[in-house]
């Protein structure tokens, strides 16, 4: 049984790397039919596959279309497995809000970061695109998020990221959130300049950055 | 040789003929140069200037006079193509450029195809063509750059980009049909610009980067349709510049396959090295827009000098200028190119 289970998880992972959504669905249904733990299948199958896809993306073997197709397969599997997760069978997730700053409607990068963060075990609230600095802060408060992820592709809208930080400072809640930024024109030096907590160059790096912050701050976050 | 007009200088540069010095230009479109500093000074402002040909021409002329860029660059956005083909546009504000508010189609399978001729019927296209005509007649020594949005960026402004990017792989037949459709309309826009008096056409296609598409799809979609546009514009004896966004690692080898008369790149690329690898290329760029926005004028001048020493053929900002770029930094750049 245990070998069988591992084999099934490996196949699940491979179906995601191979962008074979139909196979992912078939295998996820098999997990349920055979009474295998859904949470284990997510962690040891779907997540492993998506992480491999993320690695291939990082290594420039896969590009955005491939990564998006892998994520479609993963979400299809997740939709099948999620309702079968036994309550309390996993730890609480770190919560984050993510969005594209006001004035910008380019959301490819933001969507990739969201996918990889969800794969990495974060609970992500997607605020969408063209989001005002005030909305970022208000929604972060409402959701009791620990992270605020802000993305932009346009130099013209970068200043909005600074405004988010300024609002947090003004409201004396700056310490309550980790503000992480990314996107085409953004850089580490810009993150330093506006006092953000970090900058990530791509989706895979964003997860590493968030994990590093969690490791460094732990429950103080 | 010392009395080249700006138009002669850029045309000679694009023809690989000798020039007294590199031209310094900013193409418009994605690389819009209508900065807030200039508009506040002259009172000719956006967003109204996106629609009114007179105002558009005035802003283009204000920019050229105040910045020292040796061209007129219009339009000031990259949304007109998608507007004509059906997407919803938000025209922005004085400081914020227009953007696609909503892509009109959820999938390449659901695109409603319009007949050719749609560009010529659009009001904003006509404003652009009239402004081109006015500027080219009134200032015959200064080139008008007609800026167009590339085929993949236009297609991804019609179809929601997330499904679109997947469909490039999943449904190549239908994806090709949409990109080819965008290409044919873009060609019509470029030809209208040339008829109106544009001396140079520049294409920016920020969705078509190596980072997004990877080498195989860059070749299959970007190179193919960019070249289709370039060939059509070359038939009118007009030179074409292509700007490629991003770090280019994955697609560098395809650069010589792009048939444009010059290649412009982002600031992370060493144009000197690109020239070493592909000596036949005419290079344009690539002063950091981050430096232009946040740096000191002195540093801008120094960096410009480096581009001159590297023998870059046409000096220009590396990417879209922020509208809040200080005018003094731009003049530091243009003055240094001109030797002041």
From TrEMBL, chain A:
PROSITE patterns attached to this UniProt entry: B12_BINDING, B12_BINDING_NTER
Family matches, as SUPFAM superfamilies: Cobalamin (vitamin B12)-binding domain, Methionine synthase domain
Name of the protein this chain belongs to: Cobalamin-binding protein
Keywords, comma-separated and alphabetical: Cobalt, Metal-binding
Organism in which the protein naturally occurs: Acetobacterium malicum
Stretches assigned to the B12-binding domain: 93-221
Pfam families attached to this UniProt entry: B12-binding, B12-binding_2
Transmembrane segments: none
Xref: InterPro entries: Cbl-bd_cap (IPR003759), Cobalamin-bd (IPR006158), Cobalamin-bd_sf (IPR036724), Met_Synthase/Corrinoid (IPR050554), Meth_synthase_dom (IPR036594)
B12-binding N-terminal domain: residues covered: 1-93
Gene3D superfamilies: Cobalamin-binding domain, Methionine synthase domain
Entry keyword annotation includes Iron: no
């Amino acid at each position: 049984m245990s070998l069988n289970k591992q084999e099934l998880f490996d196949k699940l992972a491979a179906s995601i790397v191979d962008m074979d959504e139909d196979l992912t669905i078939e295998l996820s249904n098999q997990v349920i039919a055979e009474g295998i733990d859904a949470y284990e299948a997510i962690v040891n199958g779907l997540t492993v596959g998506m992480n491999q896809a993320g690695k291939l993306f990082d290594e420039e073997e896969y590009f955005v279309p491939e990564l998006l197709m892998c994520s479609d397969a993963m979400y299809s599997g997740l939709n099948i497995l999620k309702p079968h997760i036994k309550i309390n069978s996993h730890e609480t997730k770190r919560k984050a809000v993510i969005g594209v700053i006001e004035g910008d409607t380019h959301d490819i990068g933001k969507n990739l970061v969201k996918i990889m963060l969800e794969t990495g075990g974060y609970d992500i609230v997607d605020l969408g695109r063209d989001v005002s600095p005030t909305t970022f802060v208000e929604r972060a408060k409402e959701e009791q998020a620990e992270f605020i992820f802000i993305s932009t592709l346009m130099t013209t809208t970068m200043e909005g990221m600074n405004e988010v930080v300024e609002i947090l400072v003004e409201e004396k809640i700056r310490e309550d959130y980790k503000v992480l930024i990314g996107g085409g024109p953004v850089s580490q030096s810009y993150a330093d300049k506006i006092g953000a907590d970090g900058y990530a160059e791509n989706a895979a790096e964003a997860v590493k950055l968030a994990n590093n912050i969690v490791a460094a701050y732990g429950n103080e976050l | 040789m010392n009395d080249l007009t700006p138009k002669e200088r850029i045309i000679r540069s694009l023809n690989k003929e000798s020039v007294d010095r590199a031209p310094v230009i900013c193409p418009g479109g994605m690389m819009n140069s209508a900065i807030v500093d200039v508009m506040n000074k002259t009172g000719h402002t956006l967003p109204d200037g996106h629609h009114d040909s007179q105002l558009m021409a005035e802003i283009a002329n204000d920019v050229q006079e105040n910045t020292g860029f040796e061209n007129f660059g219009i339009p000031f956005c990259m949304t007109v193509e998608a507007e004509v083909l059906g997407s919803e546009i938000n025209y922005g504000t004085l400081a914020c450029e227009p953007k696609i508010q909503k892509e009109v189609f959820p999938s390449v399978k659901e695109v409603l195809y319009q007949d050719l001729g749609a560009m010529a019927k659009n009001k904003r296209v006509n404003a652009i063509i009239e402004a081109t005509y006015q500027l080219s007649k009134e200032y015959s020594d200064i080139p008008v750059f007609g800026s167009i949005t590339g085929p993949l960026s236009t297609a991804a402004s019609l179809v929601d980009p997330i499904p679109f990017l997947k469909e490039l792989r999943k449904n190549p037949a239908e994806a090709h049909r949409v990109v080819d459709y965008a290409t044919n309309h873009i060609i019509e826009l470029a030809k209208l610009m040339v008829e109106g008096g544009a001396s140079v056409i520049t294409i920016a296609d920020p969705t078509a980067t190596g980072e997004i598409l990877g080498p195989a799809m860059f070749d299959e979609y970007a190179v193919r349709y960019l070249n289709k546009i370039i060939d059509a514009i070359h038939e009118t004896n007009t030179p074409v510049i292509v700007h490629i966004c991003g770090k280019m690692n994955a697609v560098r080898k395809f650069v010589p396959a792009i048939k444009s008369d010059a290649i412009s790149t982002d600031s992370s690329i060493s144009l000197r090295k690109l020239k070493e690898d592909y000596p036949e290329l005419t290079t344009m760029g690539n002063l950091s827009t981050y430096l232009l926005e946040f740096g000191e004028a002195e540093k801008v001048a120094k960096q410009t000098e480096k581009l001159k020493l590297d023998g870059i053929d046409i000096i220009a900002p590396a990417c879209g200028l922020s509208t809040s770029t200080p005018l003094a930094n731009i003049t530091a750049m243009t003055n240094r190119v001109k030797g002041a």
